[in-house]
Amino acid sequence: MDDFKKYIRARVFIYIDDLIITSETPEEHLVDIDEVLRKIEIIGMKLKASKCEFAKEEIKFLGFILSKEGIRPNPDKTKAIDDYPQPTNSTDVKSCLGMCSFFRRFVHNFAAIAAPLIALTKKNTPFEWTLQCEEAMNRLEEALTSAPILAAPRLGKPFIIETDSSAKGIAGVLKQEQEGLERVIEYASRTLSKHKARYPAIELEALGLVFAVQKFRPYIDGAKCTIITDHAPLKALLHRKDLTGRLAKYQIVLQEFDVTIIYRPGKKNAVCDALSRHLPTNAITSVTMDNLQLDTVRQEQGLSPVTPRNCNMGIYDNGLRPHKETQCTGLTLLIWRKLTSLCVCFTADIRQYEFDAARPGLGGGSAFAS
User: Fold this and answer.
1) 146-150, 253-257, 291-295 — which one is most confidently predicted on average?
2) Taking every annotated instance into account, which residue ranges of this chain make up the domain Reverse transcriptase (predicted)?
3) Nearest-angstrom CA–CA distance, 80 and 82
4) Under CATH, which architecture does the 72-145 domain have?
């Protein structure tokens, strides 16, 4: 079949014994069909008329629906996911995730949405179907039944990649400008191991860039590509000569591609930050002391000396500086000028812990969940 395609002018796509002919206009389509049929006759191949369709504006192929608008999942295939019964063991969860993963390119931040389900498949994890698992299952079903139409890439033309990262996962969106509009080509995401989730912010964001370019390599290899990030320090990643460790390794990977990194504030990073529409983890909220894990706070304060510098409170309000500190029920409390109440000192080690503990009230997940 490869030799067959080599000697014809028409745009033909072949998968095993399936053959698709694509054309810009009806007139061109007739010419292309004639050329392909003549070639089939010459080499002695035969076609079954009942399996042939001609002049179709959209077709079902390999689980997808292809049309001039783009690519979308075949509803006949996603219906099996809608009808999938509630899993009763980790094997059922793996089966369900396998079906959903086939269409993951259509789901923005698939990995973060499916994180509760993925956790159930890990070794030595007891099976417990929680409310978070049920919500994740429902969100995947909803995302697949309302999946967007992805555009077909125009190879050789510039691409755009938007990336974002958090301690829960990394994700990227491949886009391309077509007819004056930015069209989405593919979504990609993955969860992080506990080790990688503890990377410093700059390394975490750089990891997101490397993941995206490697995932989209078949599209962007040899083409110009603009990478959009909401982490300004990454703009220098390609040109710094004094990098070491992981950043140096990431720099080498990125230099394989013809890419330009530009900064766009998170609030303007429309696609990747659309995640926060569903899970506003950066929203300001009030958390009562009853909701905090006070024992953990006490323990961490014992490990990390409490100082105004590591509490880092001064950045949140101009003029606020610690006046004195006191002890109460084993907790270190600071009294701040211009405030009439005591404040528990949260060092850098425990701020993230307590934010995660408070997060379920905001919908669960991280700033990278969609």
Assistant:
1) 253-257
2) 1-66
3) 5
4) 2-Layer Sandwich (3.30)
Q: Are 61 and 20 in contact, with CB atoms under 8 Å apart?
A: yes
Which secondary-structure segment (H or E) carries 18?
Answer: strand 18-22
Q: Over the chain, what is the mean pLDDT? A: 73
For 56, the token pair is: 């179709």
CA-to-CA distance for 354 and 287, rounded, in angstroms? 10
Listed by start position, the domains of the chain span: 2-56, 72-145, 159-278, 289-362
Instruction: Report the C-alpha gap between 293 and 302 in whole angstroms.
Output: 15
Q: Token pair for residue 134?
A: 């049920």
Query: Any alpha helices (H) in the chain, and if so which ranges?
Result: 2-6, 26-43, 75-82, 90-101, 110-113, 115-120, 131-145, 194-197, 201-215, 217-220, 245-254, 275-278, 294-303, 308-311, 348-358
CB 93 within 8 A of CB 117: yes
Q: In whole angstroms, what is the distance from residue 364 CA to residue 357 CA?
A: 9
If we measure between CA atoms, which residue out of 51, 71, 53 comes closest to residue 62? Answer: 71
Domain covering 159-278 assigned CATH 3.40.50.720 in the classification: no
Distance CA 46, CA 316 (A): 74
CA dihedral (312, 313, 317, 322) positive or negative:
negative
Long-range contacts of 248-251, Cβ-Cβ distance < 8 Å, separation of 24 or more: 250/203, 250/206, 250/207, 250/209, 250/210
Residue-wise pLDDT for 225-272, tens only, equals 999 988 888 888 888 888 888 999 998 998 899 999 998 876 555 555
Alpha-carbon distance of 8 to 2, in angstroms, equals 11
